[in-house]
Automatic annotation (TrEMBL), chain A:
Protein name: Ribose transport system permease protein
Keywords: Cell membrane, Membrane, Transmembrane, Transmembrane helix
PANTHER family: ABC TRANSPORTER PERMEASE PROTEIN YPHD-RELATED-RELATED (PTHR32196)
Parts of the chain that traverse the membrane: 21-43, 55-74, 81-98, 110-130, 135-153, 181-199, 225-250, 256-275
Compartments, as annotated in UniProt: Cell membrane
Keyword hit for GTP-binding: no
Gene Ontology MF terms: transmembrane transporter activity
Membrane topology according to the record: Multi-pass membrane protein
Classification via InterPro entries: ABC_transp_permease
Keyword ATP-binding: no
Gene Ontology CC terms, in alphabetical order: plasma membrane
Pfam families: BPD_transp_2
Automatic annotation (TrEMBL), chain B:
This protein's name: Ribose transport system substrate-binding protein
Entry's Gene Ontology molecular function annotations: carbohydrate binding
Signal peptide: 1-22
Organism annotation: Actinophytocola algeriensis
Subcellular location: Cell envelope
Domain of life: Bacteria
Region spans: Disordered: 22-46
Keyword Signal: yes
Entries under InterPro entries matching the protein: Peripla_BP_I, SBP_2_dom
């Protein structure tokens, strides 16, 4: 299975890194991504005009951010189902508190960050201290957030986001050729770069170790509960960031954030990151997110009837993950 | 041990992921109900019944009877029935609600509660009991059963969650002898005293489509944005639009399901714009209409001719941009009518067996008037909510 690596990877030096990437069953997602892009190219060459690509990047950015967050949780052996609800909650809170007033933008962003940290901390501690399986703990959080927001707003969001708040998700730097370099793209790229660096630091490696073999990691002196709690906090903070991007992109609707947790998990799994932890890379998770978004675009270009899209999407995902599992060689194991 | 856990987690996640891809549950049901009782799908699998379509289109032209400044009391082609048998002194009103899961229903339910408040003060209603089924048919069936079993409801109002499944429950309520009032979506029985609804989905879809046909040059391209498939009210709106587009010279580029999600709407519209011009947008419900308009703005394209809904966020955008648009209305004020009907029935006054309320779109001519009336209202509020004369206005709707 060979594949031309996307440009993004070129920024990272070293063949060893690439080999490591492909060793983790991640090749499939890059191949699939290229395949989907080629298919789109044949259907609609204008998609590859710079402004169109930038529009795609703007749309895909929130999912990339979410996928990175979900990756951090999955790689240490857990799941976070609360991110979709959290995105929705954050956007609704922001709209209600800002209520269209520009001056409140920054304080509200800080409030959202604090709320995100709090949610992540609760998720993490319920999983690690109370020993509730993360599937249940975060499912509970998802429902709590969903219900609490509806209770608070009486069922439908109120208020409005300020122009300043929407800037990041909607606007960009105007320039020739691209027409506009979206802020969202820069944010997503920064998140990915930071995450890649982070995963190569000791803490990132302990995260993977905790997911790969909890006991061995504990014997090696890793405070597993702490590492996992941090992963949940990071996931919630990134979901908050994704909320800022999505709210900026499309404003407030009653449905904002719905189902995003599954799209994010799909993206990560598609990237060859193994549920249960211990395997997979951030870049592959990012590629997974891009692939999911590219698939949506492809379906659109194909004018596939909306009703059959979920089925096709499901088949492609299962096939891709099965293929990646077949291809998987010895995974990259830290400290071994 | 670990292997098992991983396996279970994996399987669960896979199952969840796949179900997440499946069609959404009624949680994001349309901000509308269903006016239509009979038939769901005709034999050829299309959601179109010519007779009902013709009837609704004709009803748009008819002058409704009743006070013009109180559209929630107006009626089109009423066949009044006698209610003397239900005349009574009891004043306990019970309401089985399908849900308050979208802004349209939230707005309506507030109006309903405010109407009840007025009648409580006047001593016409003593107790108002509400059960909310959260879009769950089974829950609503047991809610209705609970009202019947309690035996102290003097009238039961039902806003059904779905048509066919709720029919037996409504029949049970009728058999218990209390007057039953159904509104919004219908059921397949006529045992209730009155069935209250605006003209219906065909009229809504036709209002929107006719506007596009009128305002656009022949050969123009129209994109249809829909919430989700398989819900009768929404399918009727689209079926009517297909009829009208089919007879016109407009080209329908496609119809896309969006779930009413702004991000998805913006993405889809942006993609259509990358492939070519879009001259008109038809929507089966206005949720997320603003995101569609923004897609044009952000792509640097001329704004399309637009058929949205009377949701305020859209109407405000319409005014700000000065675009050519119409706001079809699925009369939200219908939530007041069942309460008033119940009181009428208790007094033994006549009510129509099918209470068809007026359903008039908001156009350029009256847009500003409606925006002015609703100027303090939140953006996901519906302009024709019809509660301006209630004492709780505006705070009850403003601070929801």
């Amino acid at each position: 299975m060979t594949t031309t690596a996307p440009e993004k990877k070129a920024t990272r030096p070293g063949v060893a890194v690439a080999a490591r990437l492909f060793g983790g069953g991640s090749a499939t997602v890059f191949a699939l991504l290229v395949l989907v892009f080629v298919a789109i190219l044949f259907l609609n060459p204008s998609f590859f005009e710079p402004p169109s690509l930038m529009a795609f990047a703007k749309k895909a950015a929130p999912l990339v951010v979410l996928a990175v967050g979900q990756y951090l949780v999955i790689v240490c052996g857990e799941l976070d189902l609360s991110v979709g609800s959290l995105v929705g909650a954050q956007v609704v809170i922001a709209a209600a508190v800002i209520d269209g007033q520009e001056s409140r933008t920054v304080p509200v962003l800080l409030l959202m960050l604090a709320f995100g940290v709090l949610v992540g901390l609760v998720n993490g501690l319920v999983v690690t201290v109370l020993k509730v399986h993360s599937l249940i703990a975060t499912l509970g959080m998802m429902l709590v957030l969903y219900g609490a927001i509806r209770l608070w707003t009486g069922g439908a969001p109120t208020g409005a986001l300020s122009e300043g708040f929407r800037q990041v998700g909607r606007e960009g730097i105007d320039m020739p050729v691209l027409r506009q370099l979206p802020w969202a793209l820069l944010v997503a790229a920064a998140v990915v770069v930071v995450a890649v660096v982070f995963m190569r630091k000791p803490f990132g490696r302990t995260l993977v170790a905790a997911g790969d073999n909890e006991k061995a990691a504990a014997f090696a002196g890793v405070r597993v509960w702490w590492v996992r709690t941090i992963a949940f906090v990071l996931s919630s903070v990134l979901a908050t960031l994704a909320g800022v991007l999505i709210g900026g992109y499309a404003g407030v609707t009653a449905q904002v954030g719905e189902g995003l947790e599954f799209t994010a998990i799909t993206a990560v799994v598609l990237g060859g990151v193994v549920l249960g932890g211990g395997r997979g890379t951030v870049l592959a998770a990012m590629a997974g997110a891009l692939t999911v978004e590219a698939l949506f675009t492809l379906f659109n270009q194909l004018s596939l009837p909306s009703t059959i899209r979920p089925t096709v999407q499901g088949l492609i995902i299962v096939a891709a993950v099965a293929w990646a599992a077949r291809e998987r060689r010895r995974p990259f194991l830290p400290q071994s | 041990m670990r292997r098992t856990r991983v396996l279970v987690a994996g399987l669960a996640a896979a199952a969840l992921t796949l179900t997440a891809c499946a069609t959404d549950t009624p949680t994001d049901q349309p901000p509308g109900g269903g006016g239509e009782t009979e038939q769901e799908q005709s034999s050829d699998g299309e959601w179109f019944v010519q007779a009902e379509y013709d009837k609704q289109l004709a009803q748009r032209e008819q002058e409704p009877q009743g006070p013009a400044d109180q559209p929630w009391l107006q009626m089109i082609q009423p066949e009044l029935v006698d209610t003397a048998e239900f005349k009574q002194d009891g004043k306990t009103l019970c309401f089985s609600n399908a849900s308050v899961s979208n802004p349209w229903r939230v707005t309506g339910f507030i109006t309903m509660q405010q109407q009840v408040e007025v009648l409580k003060q006047a001593g016409e209603i003593s107790d108002f009991r509400v059960s909310d089924a959260g879009d769950d048919d089974n829950q609503q069936i047991s809610d209705i059963q609970a009202f019947v079993d309690a035996g102290d409801c003097n009238a039961i109002i039902i806003s059904p969650s779905t048509t066919a499944t709720l029919t037996p429950a409504v029949e049970t309520a009728c058999e218990s002898g209390v007057p039953v009032i159904v509104f919004d979506r219908g059921v397949n029985t006529d045992c209730m005293v009155t069935f209250i609804h605006p003209i219906g989905g065909y009229a809504y879809g036709a209002d929107a489509a006719e506007f596009l046909v009128e305002k656009l040059e022949p050969g123009s391209k129209v994109l249809a944005l829909r919430i989700l498939p398989g819900v009768d009210v929404l399918e009727h709106r689209w079926a009517a639009a297909q009829q009208i587009f089919g007879d016109s010279d407009l080209e329908v580029l496609g119809d896309e399901f969006t779930g009413g999600d702004g991000a998805k709407i913006k993405d889809i519209v942006t993609q259509y714009l990358q492939r070519g011009d879009v001259d008109g947008i038809w929507m089966d419900a206005g949720d997320g209409a603003v995101a569609a308009v923004e897609a044009f703005e952000d792509s640097g394209k001329d704004l399309p001719v637009f058929a949205g809904e009377d949701e305020l966020s859209f109407m405000r955008k319409w005014k700000d941009t000065g675009m050519t648009a119409i706001a079809p209305v699925y009369s939200n004020f219908q939530w007041r009518t069942p309460i008033l009907a119940a009181v009428k029935i208790w007094k033994g006054e006549q009510v129509p067996s099918e209470w068809v309320l007026p359903q008039e779109p908001i156009t350029d001519a009256d847009r500003d008037e409606y925006l002015e009336r609703n100027k303090d209202m939140p953006s996901l509020h519906y302009a024709k909510f019809g509660g301006e004369d209630l004492p709780g206005f505006p705070n009850a709707w403003k601070d929801r």
